[in-house]
Amino acid sequence: MLPAEPSPIIGYDDFLKVDIRVGEIVEAQPFPEARKPAIKLVIDFGGTIGRKKSSAQITRHYEPAALVGRQVLAVVNFPPRQIGKFMSEVLTLGVPDADGEVVLIGPGHQVPIGGRLF
């Protein structure tokens, strides 16, 4: 898979508008009714953000039971998005592998949940 073309240059203030936080997956369930294979996640961001739901197309590399306890990064200030009968509240972040399948992004070491990416 070829890398995507770079996006237009933005200012640092634009970057600051995107609130990316670390959270811990506390629940993960198969989402068979999704159009593309996915997993329903509940991610705990702690503090005022709390627990949020997300749908992630990550079935190629991850089993739901193995995801619980894993730390991931997610955008927490996008509006919720309806995916079938499921309301996804945050965008869980990943990058494509060589086949275009999603690989989750998370810290290399355990960190306090709710921490903001900078």
Radius of gyration of CA atoms, rounded to a whole number? 14 Å
What composes the largest sheet? 5 strands, antiparallel
End-to-end Cα distance, whole Å, is 28 Å
Low-confidence stretches: none
The string of secondary-structure elements, in order, is: HEEEHEEEEEE
Q: Characterize the overall form.
A: globular
Q: What structural class should be given to the helix and strand makeup?
A: mainly beta
Beta-strand content estimate: 35-45%
Instruction: Provide mean pLDDT, rounded.
Output: 95
Major β-sheet strand ordering: 3-2-1-4-7
- Count the beta strands: 9
Helix content: under 10%
Count of individual helical segments: 2
Keywords for this entry:
118 residues, mainly beta, five-stranded antiparallel beta sheet, two-stranded antiparallel sheet, 2 helices, 9 strands
Structural topology:
Layout: H1 12-17, E1 20-30, E2 39-44, E3 51-56, H2 64-67, E4 71-75, E5 81-83, E6 86-88, E7 91-92, E8 94-96, E9 102-104
Antiparallel strand pairs: 1-2, 1-4, 2-3, 4-7, 5-6, 8-9
Explain what the structure shows.
This protein has 118 residues and is mainly beta. 8% of the residues lie in helices and 36% in strands. It is built from 2 helices and 9 strands. The strands form 3 sheets. It has a 5-stranded antiparallel beta sheet. A two-stranded antiparallel sheet has the order 5-6. Strands 8-9 form a two-stranded antiparallel sheet. Strand 8 and strand 9 form a beta hairpin. It is globular. The two termini are 28 Å apart.
Task: Give a short summary of the structure.
The protein is 8% helix and 36% strand. A hairpin with an 8-residue loop joins β1 and β2.
